[in-house]
Amino acid sequence: MKRSALFTQAKCLSVLSLGACVVFTLAGCDTLNDWLAPDRVNYKAAETAPNLAVPSDLSTADISQRYAAPPAVNTLGSTVARTKTPQGNLTLGVPTDKDPLGMHVEVDGDRRWLVVDGRTPDQVWPQLQEFWAENGFTLKTDSPQTGIMSTDWAENRANIPNDWFRKSIGKLLDFAYSSGTRDMFRTQVDRASDGSTDISVTHSAMEEVLTGQDKTSSKWETRPRNPQLEAVIMQKIMQKFGLTETQSVQLIKQARPAGAKVAVNQSGGTSTLDLAEPFDRAWLRVGLALDRTNFTVDNRNRDKGIYYVHYSDSMADLKKEGLFGKFFSSNTAMPTRQFLVNVKPKADTLTQVGVVDANGQPDTSSDAQRIVSLLHAQLN
């Protein structure tokens, strides 16, 4: 368990009261099974945690005014009338013979996304805004124009064990406790050609690591995304949309396989990828692949098939470990400029992916070709 720097002082102030309280509090210990429950999350109490001072090498990209949410008077549409499922509960999606709950989950490796039948992105957007607010998050990016919604960093207070001291005294000074972790979630909302909406959630995380010989200082480092936590958040979104907990777990377990073969084409010193699937599905999968790399999507234009991305310095302290490091060696400077990842249909069931320059011509730089190689690895 990790506690903040204030914990030592808090413990000293509290020890005089320990004897009077401990007898009454120990009886309420959580069971081990309850603590280990995989879906135990609590971001609602995040405001009790100390403010996170993110070091410069972990700061997120600046968000310009073009990403600002529309004014409150500029609604995205009237409240969507929910429909009844055969089980009797009301759902945001439109039930069909194929999807009696009005939605389903698709999976590609450890990447999942929710498909809501019969609803447009504009119709589900207000529900997603409410979902993140109700669960204790502040939205840092709220852009229905680009279909990108991302939260600020927040602490999962459920990660703080309820040990005997915190149960007896610590509740009085709960701000002195910290899990030593912070989470951020990015939601992508895309329309599909059949009138449904695809919703994906990507987790990013940081962890406070003690440094120095005496372990009195600390720094924040990135840690791997948690696909299981993404699945838990998706379950909670489905419940916000009207499903029961049992139904949401059922859809996660019954996720439908998705994905298509990816071929590499090399011509004129450049590489592109061919995905054997329609543009709608390829657009979604490329966005998910970028979300799970060291690139930040600054903007995207679906009509032009362009993702505007830049390399994120938040991974610099990982010393180029992992998949990205295999493409950018220790002797290669990390790219700093913006790249344009182009997704364009070649046929009804074939889509091409490549990196282009500002004029729409193939980007022949070595960095651009490494990005194509990275996407190939992610999409496979």
UniProtKB/TrEMBL annotation:
Keyword Membrane annotated: yes
Domain of life, per lineage: Bacteria
Coiled-coil annotated spans: none
Entry keyword set: Membrane, Signal, Transmembrane
Residues spanning the signal sequence: 1-27
Pfam families in the cross-refs: Lipoprotein_18
InterPro entries assigned to the protein according to its UniProt record, in alphabetical order: BamC_C, NlpB/DapX
Name of the protein described by the UniProt record: Transmembrane protein
